[in-house]
Amino acid sequence: MSTDKNITSVLKETRQFPPQTEFVAQANVNAAERERLAEWAKSDPDGFWAEQGRSLHWFKPWDAVLDWTNVPHAKWFVGGTINASFNCLDRHLAARGNKAAIVWEGEPGDTRTLTYQQLHREVCKFANALKGLGVGKGDRVTIYMPMVPETAVAMLACARIGAMHSVVFGGFSADAVADRNNDAQSKLVITADGGWRRGKVVPLKANVDAALEKSPSVQKCVVLNRCNTAVEMKPGRDVWWHDLVADASADCPAEELDSEHPLFILYTSGSTGKPKGVLHTTGGYLLGTSLTHKWVFDIKEDDVYWCTADVGWITGHSYIVYGPLCNGATVVMYEGAPNQPREDRFWEIVAKYKVTILYTAPTAIRAFIKWGDQHPKAHDLSSLRLLGSVGEPINPEAWIWYHNVIGGGRCPIVDTWWQTETGAIMISPLPGAVATKPGSATKPLPGIQAEVVDKQGHPVPAGSGGFLVVKRPWPSMMRTIYGDDERYKATYWSNYPGVYFTADGARQDEDGYIWVMGRVDDVLNVSGHRLSTMEVESALVQHPKVAEAAVVGRPDDLKGEGIVCFVTLKQGTNPSDELKTELKAHVVHNIGALARPDDVRFSETLPKTRSGKIMRRFLRDIAAGRQTTGDATTLEDFAVLAKLREDDE
Ligand code: WTA
């Protein structure tokens, strides 16, 4: 095994990609401008953010840029009034009314384009329909939809009337939908009969029916007919989308909302079994997403921008809906799987719509590599000018492939680090300003004070591992965990008083570049999706044959991390392969397909410390042992993260 040699070679990894001259010449931000912005943000943060904030439309200007007196509860653009839907739609009507806002392609190949004018009309009608159903300012609305334009319409309609949306990823199970309905006390659920995924219909409405048996707060359910499948419509509760909007007025002025009015809740996994409802508010979030979209993606009027994330995740919220639409961009949206009908679907879409900017995830890139170069090579990808990556660390090999095979060696890659909680991109190269290094998200954006520190909060020396923190509040930061402010304070602000704790391990090199390694808490990153080990454990112990369970991640060449479950069975139960299959299916049923365990191992006992804590580090080593990857960065990071966690003391 040549691990040592590999590690040495990775540490010596010196490949650097300075921005190319032609790109710099047309860039929204060049190196000098980036420097100026960063310096300004440091010396006069309020003045800096005030100037940025003026890029939005405000009904009434703010009195103060930031109120950080009640730490850790920031208020941004205090006293200002604004509407996110107005900023994403009405503001563009005069100059961009006939410009394509959403260019959509369904998995079966059906297509639709909505101009800003048309999107505005759909949103206004649906917003009036929502009002007709009794939804008003501050109410919570669950959106459990496929990737169709109506999902964006539903979100923007909520924003228009000041209702908070809670989008639940369409891959989650009925139980997960019910939990989120109950936690948010949602009044309404918006769904579809189904959505297309790998040639099959995902039965969204049937899942909602099961969820609503356990969601007493939900009074009504709006159903979009996407797939023409037969669904049960419960009289008095369920209503078709097309019936609702048929007679709805297209006149719906946007509500004037306080800058800090809640825009949405988005559930994400934390260290415990219970997902956290991350709360974002209006003014700061909209500024963070639109500004970073302009800077990082270098967006121009003629760009065709495609973010391949699902709207059910923060990436979809910030970089399919709010950021790009606020900037008046043309957004491509695709409903289905990347390998339906063939493994070249993405490249077909890029060529067909002449996509100029592509934003996707390392797990997808690794799948493309596996599927073979012949798929991208069969299509004309020359329209592409910029590539992005998000969701997990990108291994240098995948980066280089993305650069060469997809980007033709000419497109800068922006590796963007951020979280559901941060709302917008925090660490990323600006493509016309910062030389990239494969595997590093490079440097914090101007105005973002991210650092790598030790346990005491002191900066670590170059090359050493530490914890990634953010030392100053920023506009798009989360405001609290919905309904659980104590957990908000404990999770993010108790390690370092007044400093935001990301729960990521990272190191900084001699050039100040940040290399994010992964989570130091019990959150797994499976194909770029966050999952808590405890969520999976609590699903397992709900099975009648399971006595105890411990779940850990292990490095996985394709998914980043795979899920390994160690299970002790109740007395009298015999381990078997059938039971393994049954337990995997049980977890999928409880949480969703994204949580399907890669491996279930039966064990008579689980290794514990004297105080009774499960020795996770030990289990992680065992889990990784059988299938370690050849990728030295992954192995090295695995070791560093284990040390940072120090969880078995
Ligand atoms: C990880 C997704 C390395 C990280 C936007 C973070 C990354 C978690 C990167 C948040 C990146 C995201 N490089 N790691 N470019 N982007 N992560 O909330 O561990 O779904 O804490 O937000 O993903 O995941 P979330």
Outline the biggest β-sheet: 8 strands, mixed
* Overall mean confidence score, pLDDT: 94
Looking at CATH, which topology of the largest domain would you report? Answer: Rossmann fold
Number of strands: 30
Named once each, the bound ligands are:
5'-O-[(S)-ethoxy(hydroxy)phosphoryl]adenosine
Q: Please compute the radius of gyration using only Cα atoms.
A: 24 Å
Distance between the termini: 30 Å
Global outline: globular
Question: What is the count of distinct domains?
Answer: 2
Tell me which CATH architecture of the largest domain applies here: 3-Layer(aba) Sandwich
Structural class label: alpha/beta
> Going across the major beta sheet, what is the strand order?
12-11-8-6-7-14-15-23
The CATH class of the largest domain is: Alpha Beta
Helix content estimate: 25-40%
The CATH homologous superfamily name of the largest domain equals ANL, N-terminal domain
Content of β-strand: 15-25%
The number of helical segments is: 22
Uncertain stretches of 5 or more adjacent residues: 1-12, 626-630
Attribute tags:
649 residues; alpha/beta; Rossmann fold; GMP Synthetase, Chain A, domain 3; 2 domains; eight-stranded mixed sheet; seven-stranded mixed sheet; 22 helices; globular; binds 5'-O-[(S)-ethoxy(hydroxy)phosphoryl]adenosine; ATP binding; metal-binding; AMP-dep_synth/lig_dom; EC 6.2.1.1; magnesium
